TrEMBL record:
Keywords: ATP-binding, Nucleotide-binding
Presence of the UniProt keyword ATP-binding in the record: yes
Protein name, per record: Putative ABC transporter ATP-binding protein
Boundaries of every ABC transporter domain copy: 10-235
SUPFAM superfamilies: P-loop containing nucleoside triphosphate hydrolases
Organism this protein belongs to: Gordonia sihwensis NBRC 108236
Taxonomic superkingdom: Bacteria
PANTHER family: ABC TRANSPORTER, ATP-BINDING PROTEIN, SKFA PEPTIDE EXPORT ATP-BINDING PROTEIN SKFE
A Gene Ontology molecular function term of the record: ATP binding
Keyword hit for Protease: no
CDD domains: ABC_DR_subfamily_A
InterPro entries recorded: ABC_transporter-like_ATP-bd, P-loop_NTPase
């Protein structure tokens, strides 16, 4: 699905954002090729929104360079119409209507598809002539995702605007995103706490933790980065050996251990001989384990009672 171009659709070079003594972003660098759906994951306050706002020229980096198709997006009249940024906290004039918001979007985005917007209004059951101030949170979320999809911008950023949608409406959003992306490929960067819900959408995964980029992997590679083994604890420990352990649960003499690394064909015979079962690790579980690994190491490296 991914198509390479001469310049990455999105680039970050050493992006750092400081607020006083706090680093909201800390030396973040990556390239994202054109025509890719990328998931941006991390805990609350990890730096996801800050990163997106800098890449879309709505915030300034303390240092480093954001690039969209190789150009600085700030006050760039060539680049900005190619970017659509929809966020969970999106604000519209309270006395306007969704229909008016779509009219404004149509003027700004050169690839705007009004037919798609009209269809999505019906599918999301959005009262597009009702005043914005009278819309529910879910209806406001629908306004944002409709703009993001119908803009067909070359680079589209979704900063969790779909959180207000119920499960049925979120699935509709995922389905329409995949359908339209297949017909009109572009670069989509979406952040979400609902990692398992969007895991089948994304081709690339970025994980930010405490302002640092801690993971930049293809989704296919990420799915094979860890596995879980379940069996008698003594047998499990013997199999694990010096492999890195991400998480362990115990129930009596039985242990369930998530292990970082790839399960090779040569391991299967040993697992069978030891009576150990295996299970895949979901993308959400793996990302949670990876982002808490550094915290565990920091805690265990400090003397008891030491302050941070």
């Amino acid at each position: 699905m991914t198509s390479q171009t001469s310049a990455p659709a999105i680039s970050a070079r050493g992006l750092t954002k400081r607020y006083g003594s706090t680093n909201a972003l800390d030396d973040v660098s990556f390239d994202l090729p054109a025509n890719t759906v990328c998931g941006l994951f991390g805990r609350n306050g990890a730096g996801k929104t800050t990163l997106m706002s800098i890449l879309t020229a709505q915030n300034f980096a303390t240092s480093g360079e954001p690039r969209i198709f190789g150009e600085d997006p700030y006050e760039n009249t060539h680049v900005l119409p190619r970017i659509c940024f929809v966020r969970e906290s999106q604000r519209y004039p309270e006395d306007s209507t969704p229909a008016q918001a779509f009219q404004m979007a149509r003027l700004f985005f050169p690839n705007w598809d009004q037919e798609l917007a009209d269809r999505l209004v019906e599918e999301f059951r959005l009262p597009d002539c009702r005043r914005i101030k009278k819309l529910s949170r879910g209806q406001l979320s629908a306004v944002g995702v409709i703009i993001g999809l119908a803009s067909r911008a070359d680079v589209t950023f979704f900063d969790e605007p779909y959180l207000g949608l119920d499960a049925v409406a979120r699935q509709l959003f995922y389905d329409r995103l995949l359908e339209d992306y297949s017909d009109f490929p572009r670069t989509i960067l979406l952040s979400s706490h609902l990692i398992d819900e969007v895991s089948n959408l994304v081709e690339q995964v970025l994980v930010v933790d405490e302002g640092r980029l801690v993971l930049n992997e293809s989704a296919d590679d990420l799915r094979g980065m860890a596995f879980t083994v379940v069996g008698a604890e003594s047998a499990v420990d013997a199999f694990i050996g010096d492999r890195e352990e991400l998480h362990r649960d115990r129930l009596g003499s039985v242990a369930s251990v998530t292990v970082l690394g790839r399960l090779e064909d040569t391991d299967l015979a040993e697992l069978s001989a030891r009576g150990i079962a295996t299970a895949p690790v979901s993308m959400q579980e793996l990302i949670v384990r990876l982002t808490t690994r550094a915290d565990r190491r920091e805690r265990t490296s400090r003397p008891m009672g030491a302050s941070r």
